[in-house]
Amino acid sequence: RSAGPSGSYGGKVAAKVKPNIVYPDAISGNPRAEVEVRLSPDGTIVGKRLVQSSGNKAWDDAVLRALDKTETLPRDVDGRVPSVPIIIGFKPQD
Question: What is the CATH class of 9-22+31-90?
Fold first, then answer.
């Protein structure tokens, strides 16, 4: 049995986090910030760290703030929360 997420889990996470991203400025291109997220068994975000900067500090910070605001992530298709850290990418035009 795998402790990792299903292939569709990233989309579920992005759908929950994206509405919390507050980025008022226009952004050139479509930079991708990758964040490693650690979850408790109930889906509470217990840790996060930027693993790959988008090259735009303001976008990176907006993504990290959005994760703080989101607080919990949904369960995966099997009803579980991934027990290993997951890496999620966020782009403005996703």
Answer: alpha beta
Structure tokens at 53: 């900067």
Lowest mean pLDDT among 2-16, 24-38, 67-81: 2-16
CA 16 vs CA 1, 62, 63: distances in Å: 26, 15, 12
User: What pLDDT is attached to residue 1?
Assistant: 45
Picking from 86, 80, 79, the residue whose alpha carbon sits closest to that of residue 14 is 86
- Order of strands, sheet of 45-52, starting from the edge strand that comes earlier in the sequence: 45-52, 33-39, 86-90
SS3 label, residue 78 = coil
Q: How far is residue 5's CA from residue 41's CA, in Å, rounded to a whole number?
A: 13
Amino acid identity of 26? A
